[in-house]
Structure formats: structure tokens, C-alpha cells
Amino acid sequence: LVVETGRVHASEQCLLANPDDPRWTMAIRFPVFDAAGRVEAVGTFAVDITERKQAEAALQASEARLNAINAANPVPMNIARLSDRKLLFVNEPYVRLYGLEGVDLDAFDRGELYPDPAARDWLYDELAAGREITDHELTLRRTDGREIPVSLTSRQILFQGERAIVTTSVDLTALRAAQAEVARSREALHQSEKLNALGALLAGVAHELNNPLSVVVGYSSMLREIPCDPAMAARAEKIHAAAERCARIVRTFLSMARARPPQRAPVALGEVVMGALDLAAYGLRSADVEVEADLPAGLPPVHGDADQLHQVVVNLVVNAQQALIARPAPRRLAIRAWTEGDEAVLEVGDNGPGMDPDVACRAFEPFFTTKPQGVGTGVGLSVCHGIVAAHGGRIGLDTAPGEGARFRVHLPLSHAAEAVRAAPPVPVTAGGRVLVVDDEPEIAALLKERLGQEGLSVATASSGRRALAALESGGVDAVVSDLRMPDMDGAALAAEIGRRWPGLADRILLITGDALGTDRGRLGARGLPIFEKPLDLAALAAELHRRIAGVRLQ
Question: What average pLDDT does this structure show over 462-481?
Fold first, then answer.
């Protein structure tokens, strides 16, 4: 130890007399001067500073633990001085959340994170006044410019002897996305519930409408076959055409509302399109949309489910109609179909505003829509995509801003083995006795007259129980029964006939106005043909002749 003149020197040392209990001392050395002012000797005394050193060690350990906790905290956190808003501490999640990697935090102005500077001023004013901020939601901006929704919680603290604020940030991006998804799902569920209610309503309405429609269609068909003057024939033709159009509209409504497993069969694409246009006719006319349809008469059938394909075409037509409303006249909707190899191609195009590329690439995404709330749910085109894909086809979109949109649907043609077999020639029967069971007198009268013209003897019954009583007398060759009747429906009547008169079990024909709750699949599996109202009387009569003659389509 070199003691300089006039100086006091202090040093610390650890004494290890007892390794389990180390003691710390501070040795203070000082010069002793003689009368002449010269250093005569060096004085020394020692102070026990063990407790101070232990307190310092404990403080360092506590700070290390706190730093480790803050660093490992998954919640973004920062501490800023209240006076000048300078950052004093940030953890790694905070850096990642706001994109501060590689940023000089000492020089960084956190005001850049706030798109609205007034929002930051309000936060600091509240905290300076001693109030706390809890779960305050606002939008901040990362250093890369991307805005993120966050929830801030801030408190005033004393940090390193200065007033500061500690703030935690919670990223709400995933929560907002989940909330939006829940809202979309809720809206889709609401739409589904409305469709279910509409389906139940349509079941009753269709049954009530199809009975009088059957009468109009049936008698107008018979009038067309009666020789008369041209003017009367023209009137009968107009009545029949109008009734057939009403029947197509009702069938299309039912196709959209009917909930049943898909039934694949050859489908006439032209008929599907015309049914969809009939359904959307009023909306297209009221929107002043000119419709051009190019549907070749000889277009081969496609293999699919007619009801689902109806839904695809209706969705595409309605989508085009809604797009066209946004542009001035003239508004045009063009539908055409053709074949390409083993596929039929249906194109639905409009001269509407078209779509931007970023919108077009998401057009078939579920719940994505650019339409205002209440106009669309974003499920129509995604449903179309799913149906077409399930049919082994594909759907594409050709569009550009200001150039309209053209949807092309490719569907596989029906193969020869899957095509509807031509009906065998109707056997010439020596008559036959048919029992018609229907609780609608007009339908029963129509069938009695029309089947009588086919050489059949017809008796009628107004209920299932009365039909059973009539069958007790014998002599009945076939039964035509309505499915929906009050005392015993057609399904129960068919089951009872099969039990009591097995020979008639395969000579039962069912007719229906389409009660959606009826188990049609079970009846069809038993080989019982079901004719929907309005009735095709010629097809019904032909099937009766085949059944009576013992000829069945396989």
C-alpha cells in the first residue's frame, strides 16, 4: 500500500476465516503527521461491512430476477418517463409487436406508433392526473406501417427515482378476426334459419298451389288436344303456357328449399336455366336487365342433382343482377351453353362493373363479400363452388374492372350407361280399373276424365280409409294416391295395401304437391314412382299402362 501524502485510502476485503460465514471489512488507512507536517506514520482502522455487502448482493439478485421475469413476460410491456415520454425499458414481445427490431430505442419517437396523436396525449394526461388506464382499446401503427388493434393498460410508478408509466399491450388482431368470424357465422345461421322457415312455408304453399295448378295444366292440356278454331286453340295454348310457367316457378322454389341427399341423374341443363330465369324474372325486369339466353335444343344432359344445379344457376343470376344495379343502363345478362369434349359449359356473364384482381381472387371464399350488410352474406358463390366441385366439375371467373364478369361452369356430361333409358313401348292393355285416391275433388275429377280417355276405368276415393274400403270389393288393377291426406296419408295407404293385397304392391303410383317432410327416399326405394304436381298426365297414364301390363322400368 502506497500512502500518498495527505490522502486517506480505503479498501474492502473479504475475510474467509469461516468459509460458511464470510465477513467483509473496510480498512481505512490515513497518514499521521508530525509537527513539521511530515508523514510520521500510517494509521489504520477497520469497519465491518458484512451486512451492507449482503444487502447489496440481495438487491442485485432481486434486480436479476425482475429483469428475467420482465424479459420472459409474454405480454408486451414498456416503461416510459412521464415528463418527456422517453422509453426507459421494453421487453422483447413489445419489440416484436411494434416491429422495433433494429431500431435505436433511445432515439425512437413513440409518437410514430399513434395514427392519432390526440389519443396519445389523452393517455398521458390521464396518467399525469393520477388516473389509471385499463383495457383501453385503440389502433396503433407498427414501424412497417401496418395498423394493429391493441388494448392498453397503464399505471403510474416511480422508476429509478423518477415518475414513469408502465404499460402492457395486448394484440387484439386474432380476437377481432374471431369476433368477425363469429358475426359472419351468426349471420349465416340466421340466414339458414330463415331458409328453413321459408322451406316449411313453401311446403304448405306449394301443396295448396300445385293442386289448382294441376287442374289448370291438366284441363288446358286436354283443351289443346280438342280440334277447334285457331283463336280458341291459341287461347288454350296461352293458358297452358302460363300455367306451366307457374309450375316451373313453384318447382324451383321447392328445389331451393328442399333438404334431402343429392340424387345424381341426367339433367337437362337448359331446363335448369329456364327455371332459374323464371324465378328471377321479376327482379331482372324491375332492375331493367336485358336477358339473352343461348341454349341449344340438342345440348346433351349433364350428370348431377337437378335441385343443386338449380341453386347454382339461381345464385349466379342473382349475383349478376345485384352487380348490374350498380351501373347505368343498358344492363345485360347473357347466358349461353355449349359442349367441350365430355363436358357441358354454362357461361353466365354481365356487363356490370366487374371486379378488381384482389376481389376476384377471393370471390369463392366463404363469407367474403363486398356487398353492404343486409344485401349479401358472402356464401352464394362459395356454395356454387362447393356444389360444382362435388359434381366433378369446376367453376371459373373472368373479370376486370369496368368489363363485367363471366362465370363459367364446367360439368361432366351424362354417360350412356347413366342416361335415362328410353321407356319401352306402352303395352296395349284391354283396359283396366284404377282407383284414384285424393282429398281434392278437382284433382280426382281431372284424373278420372283424363285416364278415362286412355281407356281405363276409374273410381275415386276421397281418403285413404275409404280407399281401403273400396279395395275390399276387389277388381282394382292399380292405385293412384296423393301422398298428403288428412286421415291416412299415401305412404301409410301404400304400406297397408302391400300388407293386405301383395299383388297390388307394385301397382301403386303416388302423386304429391311436394310435402318436404315426406320420406320420399324410402318410398322410392320400394319401387313406388312419385309424380309431382302439376301432373304430367301423359307420363302418368303411360306408367299406369306399364304397371297394369306388368312391365316396369329397371
Answer: 91
Residue type, 333: L
385-407: per-residue pLDDT in tens?
888 888 889 988 888 888 888 99
Q: Is the dihedral of CA 83, 87, 91, 95 positive or negative?
A: positive
CA–CA separation, 483 vs 481, rounded Å?
Answer: 6
* Domain spanning 433-549: CATH 3.40.50.2300: yes
Q: Where are the domains of the chain?
A: 1-72, 73-171, 261-420, 433-549
CB atoms within 10 A of CB 536: 15
CA 19 to chain centre: 74
Strand, coil or helix: 314: helix
Beta bridge partner(s), residue 24:
14
CATH topology for 73-171 is Beta-Lactamase (3.30.450)
**Distance between CA atoms of residues 420 and 554, nearest Å:** 11
The class of domain 261-420 in CATH terms is alpha beta
Q: What are the residues whose beta carbons fall under 8 Å from the beta carbon of 51, sequence distance 6 or more? A: none
> Distance (Å, rounded) from C-alpha 552 to C-alpha 509?
12
Helix (H, G, I), strand (E, B) or coil at 406: strand
Q: What's the length of the chain?
A: 554
In degrees and rounded to multiples of 5, residue 244 shows phi and psi of -65, -35
Beta-bridged to residue 533, according to DSSP, are none
Would you state the cell numbers that stand for residue 405, as one nine-digit string?
364478369
Average of per-residue pLDDT across 182-196: 74
User: For 501, which DSSP code?
Assistant: -
Mean pLDDT, rounded, for 421-434:
60
More confident residue, 113 or 26: 113
